[in-house]
Here is the input.
Amino acid sequence: MAKKEGGRRAGSRPVVDELDIPEGKRRVLKALPVRTRHKDLKWWHGKKDGLIVIRMRKNFSRVERALRKVAGGPEFLKIPLDRPGSRIWELCDGKHTVLDIARIMNKEFQEDMEPVLPRVIKFMELLLKRNLISLCDQGPGPQAPPRAPQRRVRMLRGSSELDIK
Here is the structure.
């Protein structure tokens, strides 16, 4: 077994070195990931292994909807998560920052998840892309999770952006 040096295992690296990260990225590390809540999104712990399963409605185009009516097929998509993914999903509760989650994952999974920070960020990018989580700025108090996914729309005249709920 490796000896501990300064509170961590010998040979292990810290999750993140604040000096190596540009200012724009540091803001993301301080953001609070929150699971979105809407009627087409459900999640539960699996019966056998206790891992998270996410069920969400598929986003069909017009042609795909017509083909689905003719050929059949499921309307919902089930996404089973692995152990690290399940743990990250549980920690996306609006109480832990992205950096906190990376530190917890480093502590719990150690070498199984090296390099920790890029893997955590990549997984969160996938969740963001599917509108399963949103990132909130760390404010003075607890924030309520959004009820529906938000999207940004760029206006045609000008460069201002609007949040649409």
Q: What stands out?
A: The longest helix spans residues 116-129. Helices lie at 23-29, 62-71, 83-91, 98-109, 116-129. The radius of gyration is 19 Å.
